[in-house]
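Suppose a colleague, Dr. K., hands you the sequence of a protein chain of 107 amino acids and asks what its three-dimensional shape might be. Before reaching for any lab equipment, you can write down a predicted structure in token form. Begin with the sequence itself:
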Amino acid sequence: GRVLVDNLAVNIVKLDVRKVPTSERTAVLTRLSAALDVPFSTIESRLVDPRNPRYEPARIASNVKESTIVYVDEHPELFPGVTTDVTWQRVYPNGKLAAHILGYLGR
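The predicted structure, expressed as tokens, is then:
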């Protein structure tokens, strides 16, 4: 009767830099940095992270508050190329105990 593993819904923010006009890139990243409370340099590094496939928007932030998601979604003119989504995260209440048997989530 004890939970061994659970799946948690997590809000994420992604950015497709190809959809951001070059002249507006710094302004958009600055606004995104302020909205997410993530340093500008962190966002830039996530855009060039080799783990992000080039054909998909780069994941900028995870575990984003619902109020921030609503703000970004309600102001698309301020955040061109930015999308929000929900993904799943695996939670192991007992740490690594039996994690190899219980499995994991992947793309």
